[in-house]
Amino acid sequence: MGESLKRPSILSKLGSTEPAIDTPQLHSVASQPRQRVVSTAITGLSRSLDDLTADSVTTLDAGLIDPSPFGDRLEQDQEAFNLLVASIEAEGQKIPVLVRPHPEKDGRYQLAYGHRRLQALKSLDRKVRAFIRPLTDAELILEQGAENGGREALTWIERALFAKEMEAQGLTSKAVWTTLGVDRTGLSKMRSVVEAVPRDIIRAIGRAPGVGQPRWQDLASAFSTEGAIDRASTVIARTTFASMASDQRFLAVLKALDEGRRASATYVERKEITSSTGKQIAYVSWTAKGHTFAIHKSESQFSTWLTENLPDLYKRFQEGSASEPPDVAISQH
Prior knowledge:
The chain has 333 residues and is α+β, with helices and mostly antiparallel strands. It contains twelve helices and ten strands. The chain has two domains: 4-264, Alpha-Beta Complex (Conserved hypothetical protein from pyrococcus furiosus pfu- 392566-001, ParB domain), CATH 3.90.1530.10; 269-332, no CATH class.
């Protein structure tokens, strides 16, 4: 107690900001994520500290602070977390977390941001330096999003999921894209991916730090293929899946769906056309590339007649004046 810092609120500055640039995208799992450029919403805040209301820093027991009700991380980056623990152990907690009084539990608090710092301090059995501010759900998730956009190293899919959480709390699209440092198009792509890929599949894959927007869009597209969810679930159920790195889990699911999509494209559905006496006349086959109509080799005269009369038959079809259907039956084999 007694210590005071100035901490800007994103809420007081958001309305006048515009997104600066889109987030750089990753084009292969093998590449490392490029450094994210923070939007002017966050940069402007750091330049305006003296114009904003200061919050006093309070020291709290870590056990009194519950997690944010809005998850933003799929899994812990253990190496980065270990480095944070070592830093706090050596130098102390430099940046306070933000909490609100718990809306349902007297004497407790809910975290708005600073999840990793809180976990590190718990592991060290240390008190937590925190800003305390009354926040609605919408305000809490906005503050959490501002921190994620400006400091916390969320992966692309974690940011996409969090954008969905923000919109679910009634925040406008502009508030979401400004807070996360993307543009309108970037937010639209985030929406399309989290709507196309089942949430349990995303959570099974994990944070996938080396996978950016283009590859996630590839996966979303692959889920449009019939049977995609079953194929993905089969991969996830393998005993070796959980032990793989998150990027490799992503690749395994994408590979299975791509193989299924190629199999669907080469699948041939065939129907035979027979006369009323059961004699084979022709067959029709369907693939992803089109339809094939083949006359049986024993019906060469019919084939010649059909070739000569097909233009007229098509014209009659277009005019809606085709003659009575022939005495044939279609059966699937």
